[in-house]
Fold this protein.
Amino acid sequence: MSHVVVDGSHGLEQQLAVLDLNSADGQGAGSGRRYIPPHLRNKDASKNAGNAYSSGRQSGYSVAQVQSYSPGWDGGRSNGFVNGYHDGRMNGTANFGRGPPRNDRGGRGSFRGNRNGGSFNQPMHNAGYGTYENKDGGWNSVVNRDAYTSFGGRSDRGKSAFFNDRGAGSRGRYERGGFGGGTGGNSRWVEESRDEEDWSKPLPPNERLEHELFSGSNTGINFEKYDDIPVEATGTNSPGHIESFHDVDMGEIIMGNITLSRYTRPTPVQKYAIPIIKAKRDLMACAQTGSGKTAAFLLPVLSQIYTDGPGEALQATKASSQQENGKYVRRKQYPISLVLAPTRELALQIYDEARKFSYRSRVRPCVVYGGADIGQQIRDLERGCHLLVATPGRLVDMMERGKIGLDYCKYLVLDEADRMLDMGFEPQIRRIVEQDTMPPKGARQTMMFSATFPKEIQILARDFLEEYIFLAVGRVGSTSENITQKVVWVEENDKRSFLLDLLNATGKDSLTLVFVETKKGADALEDFLYREGYACTSIHGDRSQRDREEALHQFRSGRCPIMVATAVAARGLDISNVKHVINFDLPSDIEEYVHRIGRTGRVGNLGLATSFYNDKNSNITKDLLDILVEAKQEVPSWLENLAYEHQHKSTNRGRPKRFSGGFGARDYRQMAGGGNAFGNRGARNTGGNRGFGGNKGGFGSFGGDSYGGNYGNYGGNYAQVDWWGN
DNA sequence: AAAAAAT
């Protein structure tokens, strides 16, 4: 099978186009301006955005921007990023005067500020109920609406326009009372919206917002390559899967946004999950990140909300609101849907997806997570919240402050459930789901996603889900053949110089993610790389949220094409175009390894993962070997020998050493059951069914016992799992 | 042992 490199839309120009467009105007440089997290930026656009941006945006501006900005830093980088890097670093330091002279800590990534320009002339709090307050929306730009901005209208996006009615969504309110910035129009608008709200009809397009949401480079999922990913759905009356987004009716808003997102075909998990969720069934899905699962739940959930409308939640929100100085202030929000995620960055990422799929709808997504200004988050909530993405701790906080009520939460999603439990979130999760006002299972629809299905998750599923469908999706990308995995023996003392060699051999435009085991190690390595003149950044849990988000942005945008990271970045983060993952320190846990290398080779791209191995990594040897074999990778003979020895030692503890020492790789291969494994590695133990092990028949069965032992052949964790807690 | 997460 050929590897399709989906790279057409990931060029540097595309990345430039989504960079902060204010970066050269001095605003982002900080000068004491309060930090605004990415999702809240541009809220007060009227304050600090010149009107310069609201015009000239209409056509072709991205090209102009790219050209005018590229000399600024890209030019420097293509000559070797050393120079541009130091320049930027000095700027940053001068501007913020804090911390060591790190490029991303100094705010040189002037992307903060208000990258979207502003088209509000009108403060949002005047808006009242049911207003057009899709994030960052502003009705001024509605003026720009034309065929170009409507769904499907772009010639390069092909297909039919989902909005051939063109005026349907905009009938009435916006054109009459909405935009224009006049304050007088608002009251009439409010009244209107109370009556004839039809949530299934699209609101008018907003070119600026549309461009902001959909011009990113990491949207177009192209999963043709993954048609052979096995998926199995079990449970009573499981709905059949779809093959196309058109096979299920998700309404014109969703279909339009799918087109804008350039999603051509559903990924395997989407093919199955979408109809299951549309059928209002609870779902337990075992799927890796990178499989498209965020859209797999967002699309059907949002579609259902559009179809059903806000219902009681709207009434409740209204009831909790009160009038102050002639304005409605929402005291408590009653989201219709809640998505829980383990890490802040993942929450943000899900939120960003939600914004795309709620474009031109009346659904207003919000995100809350720790480490950021809670006051700002509260104000954002008060502007309306229909879909909430949250990390558990901050959500509990919000609930205790009376800012969020889950009484009318009809859709609950637990993403990366296993990770949340690993991180000790179970009490908070149970507090949120079971000990508050959330409707009980059965009355709500609950979807759980997890990469693994250990006992704790089974119990949680039993407690939270009703008559659920179990979905098992083979791994996508993580250990598949589009990632080339290399393991090299590198002593601790040689790691740094070896790393430099690797970095020097890497293309300038490729993103490289370097994993280390400790936060201290991350700082140290980043400092080292900095001193060596590399444009790098780092992310770990001891850095402030602001720094983490900024680092991520610097990396994503290519400004710092090297990022040193701890486990915080291993899972869930979808960064397109990561060409190389380097395990500077190997993790002790194979799951962690799989997640880490899964940061590259995403959505059909080819990727490279290089791991530094030495004596300290013996604990992962056996599992690492299994992964390499399963993914048909070249296995160094020394690793094979070590794996055998280690396994032998651990399974035959106490046996004399000579016993294990007497066997070589050849013996190991025979024991491994493959016989001829060297020439035919992939055949070993995989049953010809990649990612699933050999026992497909019983895979995923309810109450069965075969899933655990076979899932993915890795880690061995599954095998020890007793399914239903018996 | 380390990492993550509410302050």
Q: What stands out?
A: The first strand of chain A starts at residue 231 and ends at 234. Chain A has a mean pLDDT of 67. Residues 342-344, 369-371, 374, 391-397, 419-420, 422-425, 428, 517-519, 540-541, 566-568, 570, 587-588 of chain A lie near DNA strand B (CB under 10 Å from a C1').
